[in-house]
Design a protein that fits this description.
This protein has about 400 residues and is an alpha/beta fold. It has 12 helices and 22 strands. The radius of gyration is 24 Å and the shape is elongated. The N and C termini lie far apart (about 55 Å).
């Protein structure tokens, strides 16, 4: 069922309330998601993106009830990833000659996914496509936000920026617009989306925002590929992206650990006690990496100015939940954050050195020597943990 965005612009996508994992099992989607496809009906009719392959049949059936498919003059593919283009092969079986406007890299991706040679039209930044009635689509390349093929497009007169994966959220809601949903939920999903997907490209985000602002475009609506549409002060999310892209951190320290017999957990809790004693205004959060959602932990790390990671030594190494989390952090390339390591051991003290090395590889500045203990920490060691937390805060100032 289509939903009106404004004038002759309609949302014709799919709401996926049941989605719980995305990018395979790399990203948790506790609030579901949407696959946003947009239909513009002017003298020329344009479809912007499609939906994920599992919903292809439903998408095409619903779309055919809104417009005779042969009357779709153009298709715009802002990004070839299958959650955007999954219905394209089935749609092109029905309208095979319809031109597809996309970047050169997008053609490579589409052909790589679907092995088809459709009627591609390559576009670059500044190219325009007339739709009639004084309206044009203006194309803006956005490589690595977050794929090499990515682009935005802008609809003149209606002043709509179709922003692809930028400014989106994996957030399913019945209303279309940002002023009609829970603001806490909206921004919790928006920052999670940025931290887990777009953070590695923060320098490019900053440049692209500067480029868009330099075009002096009026923006009345921002229509992303996932989540809600920004219509109430739409540039609020652009301002947030500018803030998140600039070495973002709050007055927060996050303590992450895994544990076998609660020794490392006891150390983590005592260190957190020391952090709080040293700075009562600071937010302190603790997460067991084996029991908590990895993407939520990543989001809290993104918000933090510093982290402490603890783990016992296992087989002269570290536990896989912590190893996996650090592998994610290495790829996400967070900037300007500090860290330290702690942990227990029985036979051999290996974990804290491994943790320190991995933190350095992930771009963290190590500000304290690691804290480790053999066997179960006693009251004297836990008191040291409290003092360690206090000293860690001093190292941050």
């Amino acid at each position: 069922m289509k939903k009106k965005v404004t004038n002759n612009v309609y949302w014709v996508g799919k709401s996926d309330w049941e989605l719980r994992q995305f990018h395979g099992y790399e990203y948790s989607t506790g609030k579901g998601s949407t696959y946003n496809s947009y239909l513009i009906t002017e003298e020329k009719n344009v479809l912007i993106d499609t939906v994920f392959k599992p919903f292809s049949g439903q998408f095409i059936e619903n779309l055919s009830q809104e417009i005779e498919l042969s009357k779709i003059d153009y298709i715009v593919c802002n990004h070839a990833e299958p959650d955007h283009s999954g219905a394209l092969p089935d749609l092109m079986e029905l309208i095979p000659e319809t031109p597809i406007y996309c970047t050169k890299n997008c053609i490579k991706s589409l052909q790589g996914h679907y092995h088809k040679n459709w009627n591609f039209k390559i576009v670059q930044t500044g190219d325009r496509l007339s739709l009639g009635n004084g309206r044009e689509l203006v194309f803006i390349q956005a490589p690595m936000l977050h794929w090499p093929d990515s682009m935005f497009c802008y609809l003149t007169t209606d002043n709509i920026l179709f922003s692809n994966d930028a400014f989106g959220q994996h957030y399913c809601a019945e209303p279309l617009f940002n002023d009609m949903v829970d603001q806490h939920e909206l921004y919790a999903e928006a920052i999670k989306y940025y931290a887990n997907i777009l953070a590695p490209f923060s320098k490019l985000v900053t440049k692209k925002i500067e480029e868009i602002l330099s075009l002096n475009l009026l923006v009345d609506l921002i229509c992303p590929s996932h989540g809600i549409i920004w219509r109430d002060d739409p540039l609020q999310i652009v301002r947030k992206y500018a803030e998140w892209a600039d070495h973002y951190r709050q007055n927060q320290v996050t303590v992450i650990y895994d544990t076998m017999y609660n020794g490392t957990r006891s150390m983590a809790e005592s260190i957190a006690d020391g952090l709080i004693q040293a700075d009562k205004e600071m937010t302190v959060k603790l997460y067991n990496a084996a029991k908590n959602d990895k993407n939520d932990i990543i989001t809290e790390i993104f918000k933090s100015k510093a982290i402490l990671i603890g783990c016992p030594t296992v087989n002269n190494g570290i536990m896989f939940s912590i190893a996996g989390l650090l592998e994610m952090l290495k790829g996400l390339k967070f900037q300007g954050k500090k860290a330290a390591a702690f942990g227990c051991y029985g036979w051999h003290d290996s974990s804290t050195k491994i943790l320190g090395d991995l933190l350095k590889e992930s771009g963290f500045e190590i500000v304290s020597e690691p804290l480790s203990t053999i066997w179960e920490p006693d009251g004297k060691l836990l008191a040291r943990c409290v003092e360690y937390g206090k000293r860690f805060v001093a190292e941050l100032n």
